[in-house]
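Anyone up for a design puzzle?
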């Protein structure tokens, strides 16, 4: 089990990555409209949909803007993958080598692509080309993992405190509480919704 503040088993303080998230110059300014569009797109993405609003906001702070022009190749099938993209504007087509020059999918405002890059260190499974110029926002794997780990550590700390205060869990030791904490799933409910 990795510790709360580790990156790939290395303490964050020694990896230099914790400084990445704390540095103000790493944050790229965004308008309120851009943040709202990014938040909506992330909530519709399989990679981001289960994350809290606070974690999404942290991820958005560290997203980098990329301007694209028509006919630009964003990445090629087989390239190393290290970034997920959210489309702010423009139109993008997806190509597979086995399908030839026929696009197999398209992306436009509010869509995301490249999610596998955040979860796995595998080559790109398709080629993405810009058809009409626009703007992409990218989040690299290291920043994504760091944001997730920091948020997870914060949530786990809060949950541990809550669990320790519940009388039925008082006999459990720290390892058991930690295992219980890691198995919990947070669900957001609207006011007035019946839970049972």
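Challenge accepted. My sequence:
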């Amino acid at each position: 089990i990795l510790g709360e503040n580790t990156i790939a088993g290395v303490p964050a303080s020694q990896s230099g990555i914790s400084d990445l998230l704390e540095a103000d110059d790493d944050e790229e300014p965004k308008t309120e409209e851009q943040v709202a569009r990014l938040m909506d797109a992330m909530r519709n993405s399989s990679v981001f949909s289960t994350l809290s609003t606070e974690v999404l906001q942290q991820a958005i702070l560290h997203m980098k803007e990329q301007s694209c022009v028509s006919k630009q190749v964003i990445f090629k099938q087989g390239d190393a993958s290290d970034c997920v993209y959210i489309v702010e504007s423009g139109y993008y087509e997806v190509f597979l080598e086995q399908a030839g020059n026929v696009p197999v999918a398209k992306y436009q405002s509010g869509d995301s692509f490249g999610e596998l890059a955040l979860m796995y260190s595998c080559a790109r499974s398709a080629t993405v080309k810009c058809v009409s110029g626009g703007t992409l926002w990218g989040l690299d794997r290291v920043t994504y993992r760091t944001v997730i780990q920091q948020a997870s550590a914060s949530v786990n700390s809060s949950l541990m405190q809550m669990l320790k205060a519940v009388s039925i869990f008082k006999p459990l030791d720290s390892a058991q509480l930690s295992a219980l904490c890691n198995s919990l799933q947070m669900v957001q409910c609207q006011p007035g919704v019946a839970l049972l």
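A detail worth pointing out: Residues 141-164 form the longest helix (24 residues).
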